[in-house]
Specification:
By secondary structure, this protein is mainly alpha-helical. It contains 17 helices and no strands.
Length: 450
């Protein structure tokens, strides 16, 4: 990494302070909602405590679980390093629980999300300022717009992996953008980014490969570059996968299967409840393309067009008021319509501006990289329908592409035409912060009790 990449510069201090205030409020709301339930320490059934009571859309509560009682809760083929990365935080919380009898997981994970969110905010601001070349006001506006999108806002506060992914992806974009004017990403830097992005979310590794390719061109195909940037990190990831799978996943799965089968035999109502819920989930998600764990989130029957309108470019950016932040795997329908026509108009306008901006920036390598990454996400989520039924929770993986395209649109306009677009974008940003912020705050202020 560049040795100064995490240093907050003098001209960034007010931006960093604004980000800190915003994300302290958001993470404070999350802690407030679950404080009474999730701060109990001691020898508890943490899975039942967290899993049965946490509900913020389809986000997982595995961050709190892992920091409370460490084991491999995450799916290894999707998150091969995540449990190991959280282990030091578990050790800290384990010591604190022993001393105080109080579970600090909500504060520790909240602190991690806060740091990731502030730096993601700074990296986006730097992309607009240093790589695209916008003025201070425009850079701040589009950075604020990025985090006004509903599921980027939520990703900065929930105990899931998306806040980490957002941090690593914005870091990758920033470092790659800075490398365009030099000799490209060095192999060691690409290798470290590949290890971390893939380790947190496997599919994000594809974006790091694309970043290295667009940054270095043909140099990326040299055997030394491939060895350092991709082969060695892949071997480390494979080793971490095999170790965790054999040492933790297999023994734990055997024990879980035995306990579940015993409970089903003793409690017929419980067995019926499990079967009904599994059948309901299969109806919600549709049948996978292939009967294989790697394709379990794909679907042959998910409604593509409606999902794109209501979920991909809808719920990801503008929350639905009905079934607000409910979980699609529990009680939220796959398709929830907006109440007002103006919400569809807003969505269509933003998408149109995004397409226009992408066209204006099509010759810029940063825009090419963003569009290549977005194409991969669309292939994954729309064509293969991987997670399409709740595609909005993956918004942190790609939504930042929209403000980057808008930056190129703003920059491409003649000087006398920029104020009108600037006014429109400020208005849209303000509306999103007020609307999404109001709904999120209202949901979080409804505290959860036993």
């Amino acid at each position: 990494m560049s040795k100064n990449v995490f240093a907050i510069r003098k001209e960034e201090r007010l931006v960093a302070l604004l980000a800190l205030v915003l994300f302290v409020v958001l993470n404070g709301l999350m802690i407030y909602k679950y404080y009474g339930l999730f701060t109990r320490g001691g020898n508890l059934g943490f899975w039942s405590l967290f899993h049965d009571h946490f509900c913020v859309s389809g986000f997982d509560v595995l961050g709190y679980l892992t920091v409370s009682r460490w084991k491999v809760f995450y799916s290894l083929y999707r998150h091969p390093l995540l449990s190991l990365l959280l282990y030091p935080l578990y050790m800290l919380n384990h010591w604190l629980m022993g001393v105080y009898g109080f579970n600090f997981a909500v504060f520790i994970v909240g602190g991690l999300m806060l740091v990731c969110a502030v730096y993601s905010f700074l990296f986006m601001h730097r992309i607009f300022r240093e790589i695209i070349g916008l003025g201070r006001g425009d850079a701040l506006m589009l950075t604020l717009m990025t985090f006004s999108f509903a599921y980027i806002m939520l990703s900065t506060m929930v105990p899931d992996h998306f806040g980490l992914s957002l941090f690593l992806l914005t870091l990758t974009l920033y470092l790659t953008g800075k490398s365009f004017g030099s000799n490209g990403l060095p192999a060691w830097k690409a290798g470290l980014l590949f290890l971390l992005t893939t380790g947190v979310t496997t599919t994000n590794g594809v974006k790091t490969v694309l970043a290295a390719w667009l940054s270095c061109g043909r140099k990326v195909f040299r055997w030394k570059y491939i060895l350092v940037a991709f082969v060695l990190p892949a071997l480390l990831l494979a080793g971490a996968y095999v170790y965790q799978y054999n040492e933790y996943v297999v023994p734990d799965q055997i024990a879980q299967d035995i306990n579940l089968n015993l409970k089903k035999e003793k409690d017929k109502k419980f067995a019926e409840k499990i079967e009904k819920h599994n059948a309901w989930k299969e109806k919600q998600n549709g049948k996978p393309l292939v009967d294989n764990p790697l394709f379990e989130w794909t679907s042959t029957s998910a409604p593509r067009w409606q999902s794109c309108v209501e979920n991909l470019f809808g719920e990801s950016i503008v929350l639905h008021q009905d079934y607000l932040l409910r979980d699609m795997n529990v009680d939220r329908p796959v398709i929830v319509p907006y109440r007002w026509t103006v919400q569809y108009v807003f969505e269509a306008l933003l998408v149109a501006l995004f397409v226009w901006g992408a066209w204006c920036g099509r010759r810029e390598r940063l825009m090419q990289l963003c569009l290549a990454c977005l194409a991969f996400d669309l292939l994954l989520h729309v064509v293969l329908a991987f997670g399409l039924t709740e595609v909005y929770i993956m918004g942190a993986h790609w939504l930042f592409v929209i403000p980057i395209a808008l930056a190129y649109l703003l920059k491409s306009l003649e000087t006398n035409k920029q104020p009108l677009l600037r006014l429109l974008l400020w208005a849209m940003t303000a509306c999103l912060w007020v609307y999404n912020g109001w709904l999120v705050a209202g949901y979080m202020l409804q505290r959860s009790y036993w």
